[in-house]
């Protein structure tokens, strides 16, 4: 195993485009003749995003919690296992949208691996539309978003297609006031990855760290559909869904469809993608102060 494996950390708030960036970065690494390994976690007990990573990529998943708060020890052992298994040249870590990046960096910079990994920096994605609507977020959620920007070595101002052109310089200014790192405008998290050569490694001062689990009352509802549901009934449910739901994703079995459809939702914007494989119909909902029992009851009724 070669020493000094470059490590990139992908950070960014829920639904801002991290997984999209991950897929682009994996493609770039492969084009460069390198094999990336991926460490990802989800703020739920089941993983949706990992279904989207090709099978030939070494993938280590940390489920049931956010990397930063609950399973830091597990992260260290996963990193160790990846090193033992070997066979990769770059490591990409995708944190959950509610993770504070600095705590993840702490694990990567652990003395256990200091000689094997070369931490390159944090790439943070910001959803331009979500930034515009940031007043709707709780103070804690907004604080986390700011911190993810503050510690980034490079920022992707993503989803620029969703805001009017005249707003972009304003948003850029606002974000630039939080960081001196480079900000790149993107759609679908597409960037020229040679820019990563210029990524800056920020100094971390632990003082401003936000303990996400303690202050941000995010919770995750995981539901598995056992039967197919009517599309119209689902649409109606969606229209009435609580405004404190930030993010939903999952595979939804609609009546009449051969396979469950991949459903993605961030900040009021639902998207459906046909899928040509039978996936377990897991559905993950992330938000603040969600009434888990009520949501599960409603979803049960859809069946
Ligand atoms: N309109 C638009 N949609 C985008 C863009 N980039 C990503 N998306 C969509 O936004 C949704 C969320 O993207 P992801 O890449 O899954 O976001 P994420 O940050 O990994 O989400 P979490 O894992 O929940 O934190 C998906 O439906 C993407 O297809 C963009 O530039 N414009």
TrEMBL record:
Annotated coiled-coil segments of the chain: none
Catalytic activity: GTP + H2O = GDP + phosphate + H(+)
Gene3D superfamilies hit by this protein: CobW-like, C-terminal domain (3.30.1220.10), P-loop containing nucleotide triphosphate hydrolases (3.40.50.300)
The keyword rRNA processing is assigned to this record: no
Keywords on record: Chaperone, Hydrolase, Nucleotide-binding
Pfam families assigned: cobW, CobW_C
Domain of life, source organism: Bacteria
SMART domains: CobW_C
Domain CobW C-terminal per the UniProt entry, residue ranges: 218-303
InterPro entries linked: CobW-likC_sf, CobW-like_C, CobW/HypB/UreG_nucleotide-bd, P-loop_NTPase, Zinc-reg_GTPase_activator
Family: Belongs to the SIMIBI class G3E GTPase family. ZNG1 subfamily.
Protein name: GTP-binding protein
Source species of the chain: Jeotgalibacillus haloalkalitolerans
Lineage per the UniProt record: Bacteria, Bacillati, Bacillota, Bacilli, Bacillales
């Amino acid at each position: 195993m070669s020493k000094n494996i470059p490590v990139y950390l992908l950070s960014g708030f829920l639904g801002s485009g991290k997984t999209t960036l991950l897929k682009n970065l994996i493609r770039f690494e492969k084009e460069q003749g390198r094999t990336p390994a991926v460490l990802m976690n989800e703020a739920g007990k089941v993983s949706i995003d990992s279904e989207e990573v090709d099978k030939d990529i070494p993938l280590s998943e940390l489920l049931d919690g956010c990397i930063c708060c609950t399973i830091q020890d597990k992260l260290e052992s996963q990193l160790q296992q990846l090193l033992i298994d070997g066979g990769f040249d770059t490591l990409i870590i995708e944190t959950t949208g509610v993770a504070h990046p600095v705590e993840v960096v702490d694990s990567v910079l652990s003395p256990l691996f200091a000689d094997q990994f070369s931490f390159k920096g944090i790439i943070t994605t910001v959803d331009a539309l979500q930034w515009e609507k940031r007043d709707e977020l709780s103070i804690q959620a907004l604080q986390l978003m700011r911190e993810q920007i503050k510690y980034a070595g490079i920022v992707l101002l993503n989803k620029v297609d969703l805001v009017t052109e005249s707003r972009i310089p304003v948003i850029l200014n606002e974000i630039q006031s939080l960081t001196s790192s480079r900000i790149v405008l993107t759609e679908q998290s597409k960037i020229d990855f040679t820019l990563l050569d210029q990524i800056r490694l920020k100094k971390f001062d632990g003082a401003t760290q936000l303990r996400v689990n303690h202050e941000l009352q995010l919770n995750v509802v995981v539901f598995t559909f056992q039967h197919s549901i009517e599309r119209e009934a689902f649409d109606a449910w969606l229209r009435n869904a609580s405004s404190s739901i930030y993010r939903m994703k999952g595979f939804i079995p609609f009546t009449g469809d051969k396979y469950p459809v991949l459903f993605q939702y961030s900040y009021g914007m639902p998207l459906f993608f046909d899928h040509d494989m039978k996936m377990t119909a897991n559905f993950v909902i992330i938000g603040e102060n969600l009434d888990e029992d009520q949501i599960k009851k409603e979803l049960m009724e859809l069946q």
